[in-house]
Amino acid sequence: MPVNPKYRALTKDELAGLEKEFVDYLIVNGITADDWVKIKEEEKEKAEDIIVLFSDVVFEGVMRKVKFLEFREKSDLKSFQCLEEKIILVGMMSENPEVNFTEKKYLKTAAQEPPKGVKVYSTEKRYAKTRELELFEMIQAGCSISDGQIFKALAMAMNK
């Protein structure tokens, strides 16, 4: 019976980029290079399961390190601070067609001093699932990992 991934299986390209880490993972789990070759050839389902389990380890490690996420559209910007127990959202939205939060230059000035007609908002919530799984789902839905600069600028703009 195949193992169900907690997150998703890494693609071949992603796995190739993590070759050293995968080899280390196999060694830690008592699988030699010869064993791996044999498993891939003779027990394809077991090989896929091993890749799924390794993928979960990789994604779990990445998600644990995430502190901030962003989601940008032309007229809506959402920036998230990902704490241990809850996630805080600070965002900006506008109905003005000249607003474009996808442009870095515009974004920088707008975050420091929101232009007229731009609504800055904030909310927070506790995680409905595990923190890591919820962040993974947000990334799969279009969020990107960020350095938190936009979040911090928006939080300061709200306090003006």
How would you describe the overall organization of this protein?
The protein has 160 residues and is α+β, with helices and mostly antiparallel strands. The chain has two domains: 54 residues; 91 residues, no CATH class. Helix content is 48%, strand content 21%. The chain contains seven helices and five strands. It has a five-stranded antiparallel sheet, with helices on both faces. Helix 3 crosses helix 4. The chain starts with 11 loop residues before the first helix and ends with a helix. The model has no long low-confidence stretch (mean pLDDT 92).
Rg (C-alpha, Å): 21 Å
Oligomer state equals single chain
Helical residues, percent: 40-55%
Uncertain segments: none
Termini gap:
57 Å
**Sheet/helix structural class:** alpha+beta
How many β-strand runs?
5
Mean pLDDT: 92
Whole-number count of domains: 2
Order of SSEs, N→C?
A: HHHHEEEHEHEH
- Largest sheet entry: 5 strands, antiparallel
For the biggest β-sheet, the strand order reads 4-3-2-1-5
| Rough outline | elongated
Q: What is the beta-strand fraction?
A: 15-25%
Number of helices: 7
Write the layout of secondary structure elements.
Blueprint: H1 12-17, H2 19-28, H3 33-42, H4 44-65, E1 68-73, E2 76-82, E3 86-94, H5 104-112, E4 118-126, H6 131-140, E5 144-146, H7 149-158
Antiparallel strand pairs: 1-2, 1-5, 2-3, 3-4
Summarize the structure.
48% of the residues lie in helices and 21% in strands.
Tags for this entry?
single chain; 160 residues; alpha+beta; 2 domains; 5-stranded antiparallel sheet; 7 helices
